[in-house]
């Protein structure tokens, strides 16, 4: 059974958990909550969503076959890697970062939303009554 996609997602999920929780820890220690939305989104899109994706492909490994799951993986990862710095730039970057924030807050969430749309198609395909394994 090929668990490469699931492994990649689960490893990324715990890395994002460490980053997101580390940011939360720093916010509490410094009592500066300006970046709270970045913390929330790294934890929810990086840790929770990636872990759920990884567990889904673990439970239904046949769903990880083909090109669509690769599109799902890369749009989710690249989307988050654009979205988070752009959100941070918007919240704490000041006017010098406004253009980057503006472009990133369109490009990042577009990819993130696209990744969920692709995942929705994968879930529907894998859970069709005739093809679902469980
Ligand atoms: C070591 C673990 C964590 C620490 C130290 C931590 C710390 C914090 C702190 C200090 C805040 C700001 C509170 C405020 O604005 O008054 C916060 C907000 C928040 N955290 Fe965490 N957190 C942790 C883990 C998580 C996890 C695992 C999630 C989600 C899966 C999460 C989701 C959120 C959300 C949704 C907010 C509200 C953000 C907002 O108001 O914009 N946190 N956290």
From TrEMBL:
Transmembrane segments: 9-28, 40-59, 71-88, 100-124
InterPro entries: Cyt_c_oxase-like_su1_sf (IPR036927)
Superkingdom of origin organism: Bacteria
UniProtKB keywords: Membrane, Transmembrane, Transmembrane helix
UniProt protein name: Cytochrome-c oxidase
């Amino acid at each position: 059974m090929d668990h490469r996609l699931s492994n990649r997602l689960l490893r990324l999920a715990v890395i994002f958990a460490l980053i997101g929780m580390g940011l939360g820890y720093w916010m509490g220690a410094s009592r500066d909550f300006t970046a709270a939305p970045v913390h929330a989104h790294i934890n929810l899109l990086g840790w929770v969503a990636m872990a759920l994706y990884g567990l889904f492909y673990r439970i239904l490994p046949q769903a990880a076959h083909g090109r669509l799951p690769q599109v799902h993986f890369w749009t989710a990862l690249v989307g988050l890697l654009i979205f988070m710095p752009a959100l941070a730039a918007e919240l704490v970057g000041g006017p010098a970062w406004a253009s980057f924030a503006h472009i990133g807050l369109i490009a990042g969430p577009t990819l993130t939303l696209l990744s969920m749309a692709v995942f929705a198609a994968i879930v529907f395909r894998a859970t069709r009554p005739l093809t679902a394994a469980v």
